[in-house]
Structure formats: structure tokens, C-alpha cells
Design brief:
alpha+beta, 9 helices
Length: 242
């Protein structure tokens, strides 16, 4: 009976904590809400394991869920605050990608792109057009590109508890293998530049080029091809990167 009461209490307390200061907070801030929900679920699982070993499974789940929800809410707020700072950088597209509540709809020509996103934990995605960073067909930074990356690096330095992935992409224009190699070199140049601007290289956990794979627009038009030629910088909370 005692365990039954504890489980009922968990059902009441977990949603209450996840609501934070009220329903309006989560409704208006899906980033924080997603982090809270994920933290609660993971916390409940961890707490359940602890509870099993101590003979108090219900209590363990409650404690774990409450702690996880609080941690998740904190991470969500931190990511939200960073997103607002990145939003101020001209020419930079910022998106909060949440595996549970992604607002991005996959284009009909590339459903795999949505699947790739959904396989990741919640994170920030910063998208820079190659027109901002590079001359056409070149892996040498264009004039002003280092300054733009410097603005990004400043925010990264101010928020060191995160890890970074850098990914290069290309349009379908030109030879496929050449586009793949060019996307890899461009991603590497961006990574090297961020390190030269003071980012600890141990924070950069992946640098990769995907060439023509995962387009975000149709390659049938020049405007679409321009969108597909890009570098994306993913920023994960250190606790969640994998």
C-alpha cells in the first residue's frame, strides 16, 4: 500500500514540476518543455533502478523524475538563451531541433533528412550558406567569413558546457565526388577557424562532409541549390551529445 501511494504521488508531482511556473511557460517555450520532459523520463528510469536496489522502487522513480525534470528544464533554458543570442547574427539561421517536437517538415524529395534529425537528442542547429563563407567552388574563406565565425565563436566561448558537430553539404551541381570532397574541406576549414578563435578542440566531436546528401531544398532551381550549399554547426548540451 505504501508503494502504491508513492506511485500516485509521482503521477501528481512529475507533471506539476514539468509545468514549472505554469502551463503558459511550457506552451510558450517548447525548447524548455522538451528538455523538461526528456529529463523527467530519463530521471524516472534512473531513479527506478536506484529504487529497485534499495527496495523503494516508487520513491526512486519519483526522486529520479523530479531531479531529471529540473535538470532538463535548466538545459532547455540554457539552450533557449543561446538560441536568442545566435539569432542576432546576420545571415545565420538558427533552429532548435527536438527529437520529440520538431517543427521542421521534411521535403518530399528528402525524407531521410528528417529521420537523421529525429535520431539526435535536442540541440541547436546553426546554418550558414556557403555564399556567406566561401567563394563558389572554393574551400578558402571569403572576405568577412572569419568575422562571422568570430561572432559565433564568442557565444560558444561564453557557453562552454556544450559540444559541437560541423557538417558540410553541397548542391547536385557538378561531379558528385568533387562535391563530397569540397563539403568535407569546407567543414574542416570552419572547424579549424573556430579553434583558432579560441574554441577548445575537444569540444568539436565531429567534422564531416555529406556532399549532395540531405538537401533541404530542390536542386531544380538556383535558389534551391544555393540553400543546399551550406555548413551546419550543431550544438549539443554536453550531457546529451552522443
Amino acid at each position: 500500500m505504501k508503494r502504491f501511494k508513492i506511485l500516485i504521488l509521482s503521477m501528481l508531482l512529475i507533471p506539476a514540476l514539468m509545468m514549472g511556473s505554469g502551463c503558459q511557460t511550457i506552451k510558450d517555450n517548447p525548447r524548455t518543455a522538451g528538455g523538461t520532459a526528456g529529463g523527467a523520463a530519463l530521471g524516472a528510469l534512473a531513479g527506478g533502478i536506484i529504487g529497485h536496489q534499495t527496495g523503494h522502487r516508487g520513491a526512486g522513480a519519483v526522486i529520479g523524475a523530479l531531479g531529471g525534470a529540473a535538470l532538463g528544464a535548466t538545459i532547455g533554458r540554457q539552450m533557449d538563451n543561446q538560441a536568442k543570442l545566435y539569432d542576432r547574427i546576420e545571415g545565420l539561421e538558427v533552429e532548435m531541433r527536438n527529437a520529440q517536437e520538431s517543427q521542421y517538415q521534411a521535403p518530399q524529395w528528402q525524407p531521410e533528412y528528417e529521420q537523421m534529425k529525429a535520431a539526435q537528442p535536442p540541440h541547436l542547429n546553426l546554418r550558414l550558406s556557403n555564399d556567406v563563407l566561401f567563394q563558389r567552388g572554393s574551400a578558402v574563406l571569403a572576405e568577412g567569413a572569419r568575422t562571422k565565425l568570430g561572432e559565433i565563436a564568442q557565444i560558444m566561448r561564453d557557453h562552454p558546457n556544450s559540444q559541437i558537430r560541423i557538417k558540410g553539404y553541397a548542391s547536385s551541381e557538378g561531379e558528385e565526388q568533387m562535391n563530397l570532397e569540397l563539403s568535407r574541406r569546407r567543414a574542416a576549414i570552419v572547424a579549424d577557424t573556430l579553434v583558432s578563435l579560441g574554441i577548445n578542440p575537444t569540444r568539436i566531436v565531429q567534422v564531416a562532409g555529406f556532399g549532395e546528401s540531405f538537401p533541404i531544398a530542390s536542386n531544380e532551381t538556383e535558389a534551391g541549390r544555393a540553400m543546399n550549399r551550406r555548413v551546419e554547426i550543431e550544438i549539443f548540451p554536453a550531457e546529451e551529445v552522443r
